[in-house]
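Appendix B: complex inputs.
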Amino acid sequence: MRKYGGKWEWTAILLCLTAFCLILAGMLWDCLPVPVIRMMIPGSGIFILLLTALWRERQVRKETDFANRICDTVDALMDGRVPPAYHFYEDTRASRVQGKLLQYYDCMREGQKQSEEDRQNIQELVSDISHQVKTPVANIRMFTDILQEHSLSHEKQTEFLEAMNAQIDKLDFLMQALIKMSRLETGTFALHMEECSLYDTIGQAVNAVWAKAEEKRIRMEVECDSRVTVKHDRKWTAEALGNILDNAVKYTPENGAVGVRVRPWHFYTRIDISDTGIGIAAEHYHDVFKRFYRAREVASMEGVGLGLSLARSIITRQKGYISMKSEVGKGTVFSVFLLN
Amino acid sequence: MDIVRIRNLKKYFGSGEHRVKALDGLSLSIEKGRFTVIVGASGSGKTTLLNTIGGLYRPTAGEILVDGVNLAELSEDQLTVFRRRRVGFVFQDYRLIPELTVRENILFPLALDDARVDEVFFGKLAGCLGLGGKLDAFPYRLSGGEQQCAAIARALITRPAIVLADEPTGSLDVKTGQNVMGLLKMTVEVFHQTLLVITHDLELAQMAESVVRLRDGKTEVQKCDLCVPGV
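Resulting structure:
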């Protein structure tokens, strides 16, 4: 619309100017005694007409050139080539639009790459699940075979059935954790973010590990103002904090201490979960958040290595983050930052 | 895909006896869309590297490709346009213009390029950085953290190829520094930006996806994974 409007606008101005010159020439023809001046009036009209036509022609050529450059750029991008007439960082309009088109193209490619990565993540998850499930299933099969093929005493049978039960519990725990993990990674659940008390959420997380801590005579201290509220998903955040606390209790020796401290900051609320446990060597800081990672020194202890990975996914989905500080033999502090 | 590729980069200052080798044969690559932190002792060449990637310094020798362009091949005018359109800078001392409001400060790079404001993007950006209610205020009315947030928004408003931050928390206390870094990290994630930060704070460095350590103008370690303090 703008283009046509502009074209007609200029044509109208041109016609008006020419008509004005011709009318002026007609009116003043007899009044002007000098023929040169008489001729100058229509002459100037024709001059203006020519000048405007030339100017218009130049404009049209520039617009065509601009359109051609943009079309060439789009054609090249569709073919996956670098645009032929792309002059990097020229201070021209064409260069600016070309730059934006390239940026858009990059965004599209990033999107494709992201989809590819997501697909790969799901594949890895499926492979991890099958790998983790193999051992308990094999154990259960072995116990079943023994029970079916051998006549065992009642005590022995009970012993094998208990062992089978333990394997089923492990399988159940594994499946629950993996379902949560896959839901997080594939984004197939919605977070229910609401401004609510952090004290209650922490309470929920602490309750889940309280019995274990009591059993090991671990002192648990929570320092949190009950008035602190943060926008978060209560259920999933309690799950994340519970996983970190569970790790803290698991790797802290008897008579140790586990603490939770909340500090509301300007943009974030910081939750420090500290323990007096075995600690983590600096070179493994990044490993502990990986799926199924188990440090060599804790391989004999119960666990599958999903807790921290799950916790990080949950916190990241809520636009928060987790950092940590640790000293081997002295303890670890995990800091969870929730966006206010 | 790498947004920055550097091969055997050298940057010397001065000449003869007074020559200082700030970068001496550094090679490095930075992946697009990642949050990378550069750590290193004072004088290891961190700021020189950042300024060279941002087109503020010309390298003495070596190759430096940013967003597919060899910076050494650009003229001064082209470098100016490159910085204006493709690089977002965040400085330690914010560098906001005191006579302009927060809104005007954020939109300043667009005004330089005579570009139109994408109000939707601007609104999202200001909201993300918690500046919604402060857009008409002058910088002196804002806290240090808020001023740095305005500086971050100014760096992102042109949707640059890379955001370069030189000690963005250096003028802030530890608490505000953590807050601002968290917001910076979140904002670049939301808008799918590439972020390169210089810091000496290893706790802050933990937020990054990859960490590069410089020593005497050379890359000592380049780790492309969740970061490791102590690197």
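The interface with chain B takes residues 82, 88-91, 95-96, 99, 103, 107, 110, 113, 265-268, 270, 282-283, 285-286, 289, 319-321, 323-325, 337, 339 of chain A (CB under 8 Å).
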